[in-house]
Amino acid sequence: MQTTTIQHLYKPSNDGNSLFYAWFLSMHTRVDIILCSRKSEGELLLVVNRIYDALCRLEKMANFYDPASELSVVNLTAFVSPVVLSEELYSMIDFCLEYNSRTLGCFDVTVHSENYNQNTIYSVHLSAGDHSICFSQPGVTINLSGFLKGYALETIRGILNEALIENALINMGNSSILALGNHPVGSGWKINDILLHNECLTTSGNDSPNRRHIVSPRNGKLVEGVKQIAVVTTDGSIGEILSTGLFAADSEQRKVLLAEFSSVLSQFFLIGC
Asked: Does position 255 have pLDDT exceeding 70, yes or no?
């Protein structure tokens, strides 16, 4: 636990519902946390430290760009021989493979592989017996960047639920947001004119030269045309997958996906066609 990297402000209230605001850097972005609770400053700081530690753990496990991460070891060696995964990373990759099928191939964690095509993902083989993974062709890599922040939001939700904190806002770089309960002076949380009630707002896009990273599974090239897509969902993991998948989808695929995921998707925004 590293408290020196976390900055915070604490404002007690006469009615007992204090306001705690914390911020730190993690997952290559700024993380802002607002907690409304009757707990003490020390208790809330411990909760934020648990969140910070959880994000650090996820980075060490699944950071595509860190050569020391568990995922990087997989990408380097899984073609040579099977690699036994931690239970959590195994579950994450299994989940992403399932949603490749459910999103008509529009969400694809192998899209940054060498000589990529739409069949590359079928070169990834998981073994449920020993939680191992292997690649059946060279050059395959798994990149969980289009999923990890949404998964992190759900991890944070679990920590807050365990701490019995019902009112909170988690903002990861303005692209992945979790809103629980209510703002101190209103119902829900209003983010850029979007009212969230126990929901996640996730955004994907190639809207600036520094963020042009989403590749089309159809041709392996950067997605052009649409600048951003934002979705509001009841689950951050699925929301992150949908914002990426819908961004990469063509117009007909979008219609199918919006209908398929209507039970978890409450709002959809297409920006800058």
From this structure: yes
- Beta-bridged to residue 171, according to DSSP, are 32, 177
CB 126 within 8 Å of CB 132:
yes
Q: Are residues 120 and 177 in the same domain?
A: no
Domain annotation covers residue 142: no
Tens-place pLDDT, residues 131-165: 999 999 999 999 999 899 999 999 999 999 999 99
pTM, whole model, 2 decimals?
A: 0.91
Residues 11 and 27 in one domain: yes
Domain range for 72: 65-135
Q: Going by C-beta distance under 8 Å and a sequence separation of 6 or more, which residues neighbour residue 250? A: 218
SS3 171: strand
**In whole angstroms, how large is the CA radius of gyration of the chain?**
19
**Quick check: is 87 in a domain?**
yes
Separation between Cα atoms, residue 162 and residue 148, nearest integer Å? 21
* Statement to judge: residues 48 and 111 lie in one domain: no
| Beta-bridge partners for 234 | none
Q: Where are the beta strands (DSSP E) in 128-193?
A: 132-135, 167-172, 176-180, 189-191
For residues 73 and 40, state if they share a domain.
Answer: no
